[in-house]
Amino acid sequence: MAVSNFVYNTFFKKSSSAALTVVVGAILFERGVDAFTDSVFEYYNRGRLWKNIAHLYPPKPED
Amino acid sequence: MAPVLGQFGRTVFSNFAKGYSHPKVYLSNTSSSFREMSQGKKILLTTGCFLTTAAAGLAYSLNESVKAIDLNLHPPKYPWPHKGHRHEPELLAALPFRKLELDKAIGLYDAASLRRGWQVYKQVCAACHSLRFVAYRQFVDLFMTEDEAKAEAAEATITDGPDANGKMFQRPGKLADYIPSPYPNEEAARVANGGAYPPDLSNITVGREGDEDYVFSLLRGYADPPAGVELGENQHFNLYMQGNAIAMAQALYNGLIEYDDGTPATASQMAKDVTHFLAYCATPELESWKKYLFKWTIISTCLFGLAWYYKRHLWASLVYRRVAYRDVNKKH
Q: Which segments constitute the Cytochrome c domain (chain B) (predicted)?
């Protein structure tokens, strides 16, 4: 109860702080979802991506 | 006879009156009266429904099997990294590097295969087939470095212009250039290929029934024509081509090119790699689509949870109310 009271009083009680919470929360949430998605895709597709195999193709010496 | 009829009529009428003299109150105003039917009618109706469904299923399957008799060999399904395995457990068992069958949902293109496929296209297919809607810049960090892509582009000769004098001029390619076509127009391509037009390969895997599986099967589908099959001039027998006569000769043979990563260049390896590359050319946005779907799933789940909580919150006062009735005649 103490936690929810603290959260309510700090983040949602005033309209201004609630609006700020929504905006900041949306940004953080989106960045989190993006990072999570990328990590899942990179983990599942490990070995397939260019960043995993780029070292196998060293740049050709200029001739 | 008359007494019998009279008895019958009285029975029917009394049943009729019985049925309608006590109107029932239904909670829902649906027209379904299945509950009210007699046992025989219920059985009849249920059997009829089953039989209708079975007949529809039979007709559908017969129709499907009729389609199978046209002389068109359908390609088998192959386990592409970006499309997934399709109900082929023995194939899945042979692929130890993926434990989960999630390729269809989150599988991306295989960069090494794309790189080999580009080599096959450049050294074999590009002699006749254009790739008009693909640019060199797309290859950067997908299966080659930026320097390599620039070098690839510089090898090509691009017609640019007009210059200050109104003339078109030739220049080496840049990253933003699209891959030049082997022929300036369709007529030139037809003349050079005995009347047959080599299609542009930019969208070939989505432009043919069977997608990647069809293109791969077509490249591996050359055979000697069976007895009795007449082929025209400049035509070759292919199992997967519609009508079995294709103008393109078999292009891929074992050891035709040399891969820069040392993979043995067998004909099926080259067919697989170039098909994978062409699949990328047709749907380069597949990777972002899959990521969007993944994100959409996460966000929708969260929004659903919020909506569910908000609905409970709004209706709580009604859902959890208790109504007590007081008998006004009773003295308290």
A: 112-264
Nearest to B273 by CA among B125, B98, B147, B74: B125
Which chain A residues are closer than 8 Å to B310 by Cβ?
none
pLDDT tens digits for B31-77?
A: 567 888 889 999 999 999 999 999 999 998 887 766 655 667 889 88
Query: Inter-chain contact B111–A50, Cβ cutoff 8 Å?
Result: yes
Across the interface, of A44, A51, A53, the residue whose CB is closest to B102 is: A44
Looking at chain A, the whole-number percentage of residues with pLDDT higher than 90 is 79
Kindly list the domain boundaries of chain B, sorted by start residue.
111-287
Sign of torsion over alpha carbons B17, B21, B26, B31: positive
CA distance A45 to chain B (A): 6
Question: Could you give the CA distance from residue B158 to residue B183 in angstroms, rounded to a whole number?
Answer: 13
Q: What CATH fold (topology level) applies to the domain A2-56?
A: 1.20.5
| DSSP 8-state class, residue B140 | B
Q: Is 0.90 exceeded by the ipTM?
A: no
| CB-CB under 8 Å, B106 with A57 | no
State the Cα–Cα distance between residues B108 and B84, nearest whole angstrom: 10
C-beta separation of B111 from B143 below 8 A:
yes
B260 interaction partners in chain A (CB closer than 8 Å): 57
Answer yes or no: do B295 and A34 touch at CB < 8 A.
yes
A5 to chain B, any CB pair closer than 8 A? The answer is no
Tell me the chain B residues in contact with residue A43 when contact means C-beta distances shorter than 8 Å. Answer: none
Whole-angstrom Cα Rg for chain B: 34
CA angle centred on B258, ends B198 and B82, rounded to 5°: 65
Q: Report the CATH number of the B111-287 domain.
A: 1.10.760.10
* CB atoms closer than 10 angstroms to residue B331: 5
